[in-house]
């Protein structure tokens, strides 16, 4: 790859490196743009972008009514629900599929708690590539419906999300499919770091003081850290924000690891929380999350389901932003952070709103595209039919 000069292993994830300098991000101020604006800092060679759907360039909203409610005059919402399948997963999907189109792969696979799968199903449909998806049998039915509407194959795994990841990765190795699994494919972090570049540009080329984001497997937060760190490496910023990661009380492995106290069983129960998008018991790159939070002087906080639902209502009623519970976690986390002195009301704080509740027109998932499986053999046989 032309632009990538090397790669280092950092806390269990692969970190691509570039020849950092200030010219890598253009000086102009475009009215509208996509994540390909930052392609000098992405692992794509020259030539036209093949992925056919515009991704990224999402608004950074000032949210005046919410600012008033919170007593925070410098509060911002980075609205990632404005991507084509309404979550930040579209960025990672686009970069992985761009790579797949260039390498002429015919199938992409991922495991997912829901949104990565919806993004992959629709993105693959747009790119003309087959999607084979693995989810827990707990996956939200509306999200399943969307996946099969987009023509994806969906395999349901009773043993849960971690087992779905294992099967998807084994299938990628065995059948030579493109592996979009978060944490396994470093391109997911490369794509998601463009959020940091966008926020920095939207704040007149300054990083916020504090950046708050929900944490499931970890790439969203780790990518923010990498993006802000790369701006410093390029000589375009002199500091990075404190990162605050938010998890649901019912599934908070990384908050417990951060505090150094073991999680009880009620704190590791993904089916118990409304925040399905971040309900991950064994985060793929948890150590990298803890490193990123520590490096910037941030913290990890847990929020209750009531607080998550309250944040959904407040985002709707005070900012006009529709979010699913996991997507609203940053606002719930902000209240905890302010209470505990981790963020000050006078600071510039950016909330990453990661996903919106999905609509399915009351359709149900296609039975000819779904199957409950335990083994790769069952996957192979279902796909042959
Ligand atoms: C996936 C997801 C996250 C967290 O992303 P990770 O990169 O896995 O930590 C947050 N919110 C929503 C809505 C998501 O779908």
UniProtKB/TrEMBL annotation:
<dbReference type="Pfam" id="PF00291">
    <property type="entry name" value="PALP"/>
</dbReference>
<dbReference type="InterPro" id="IPR001926">
    <property type="entry name" value="TrpB-like_PALP"/>
</dbReference>
<keyword id="KW-0663">Pyridoxal phosphate</keyword>
<protein>
    <submittedName>
        <fullName>Threonine synthase</fullName>
        <ecNumber>4.2.3.1</ecNumber>
    </submittedName>
</protein>
<feature type="domain" description="Tryptophan synthase beta chain-like PALP">
    <location>
        <begin position="55"/>
        <end position="355"/>
    </location>
</feature>
<dbReference type="GO" id="GO:0004795">
    <property type="term" value="F:threonine synthase activity"/>
</dbReference>
<dbReference type="InterPro" id="IPR036052">
    <property type="entry name" value="TrpB-like_PALP_sf"/>
</dbReference>
<keyword id="KW-0456">Lyase</keyword>
<dbReference type="InterPro" id="IPR050147">
    <property type="entry name" value="Ser/Thr_Dehydratase"/>
</dbReference>
């Amino acid at each position: 790859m032309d632009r990538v000069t090397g790669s280092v292993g950092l806390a269990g994830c692969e970190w691509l490196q570039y020849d950092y300098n200030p010219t890598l991000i253009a000086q102009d101020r475009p009215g509208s743009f996509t994540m390909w604006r930052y392609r000098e800092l992405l692992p794509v060679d020259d030539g036209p972008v093949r992925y056919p759907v515009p991704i990224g360039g999402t608004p950074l909203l000032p949210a005046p009514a919410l600012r008033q409610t919170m007593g925070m005059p410098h509060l911002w919402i980075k609205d990632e629900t404005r991507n084509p399948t309404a979550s930040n997963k579209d960025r990672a999907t686009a970069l992985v599929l761009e790579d797949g189109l260039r390498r002429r792969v015919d199938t992409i696979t991922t495991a997912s708690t829901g949104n990565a799968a919806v993004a992959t199903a629709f993105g693959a449909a747009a790119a003309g590539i087959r999607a084979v998806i693995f989810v827990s049998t707990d996956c939200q039915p509306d999200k399943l419906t969307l996946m099969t509407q987009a023509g994806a194959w969906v395999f349901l795994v009773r043993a849960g999300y971690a087992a779905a990841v294992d099967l998807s990765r084994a299938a990628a190795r065995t059948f030579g499919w493109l592996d979009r699994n978060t944490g396994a494919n470093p391109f997911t972090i490369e794509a998601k770091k463009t959020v940091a570049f966008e926020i920095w540009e939207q704040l007149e080329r300054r990083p916020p003081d504090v950046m708050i984001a929900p944490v499931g497997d970890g790439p969203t937060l780790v990518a923010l850290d990498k993006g802000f760190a790369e701006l410093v490496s390029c000589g375009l910023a002199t500091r990075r924000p404190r990162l605050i990661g938010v998890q649901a009380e019912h599934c908070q492995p990384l908050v417990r690891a951060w505090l150094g106290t073991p999680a009880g069983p009620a704190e590791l129960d993904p089916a118990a929380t409304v925040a399905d998008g971040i309900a991950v018991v064994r985060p793929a790159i948890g150590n990298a999350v803890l490193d990123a939070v520590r490096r910037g002087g941030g913290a990890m906080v847990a929020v209750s389901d009531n607080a998550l639902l309250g944040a959904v209502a407040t985002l709707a009623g005070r900012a006009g932003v529709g979010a699913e519970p996991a997507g609203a976690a940053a606002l719930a986390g902000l209240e905890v952070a302010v209470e505990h002195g981790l963020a000050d009301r006078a600071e510039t704080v950016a909330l990453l709103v990661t996903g919106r509740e999905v609509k399915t027109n009351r359709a149900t998932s296609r039975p000819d595209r779904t199957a409950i499986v335990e083994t790769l053999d069952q996957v192979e046989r279902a796909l042959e039919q």
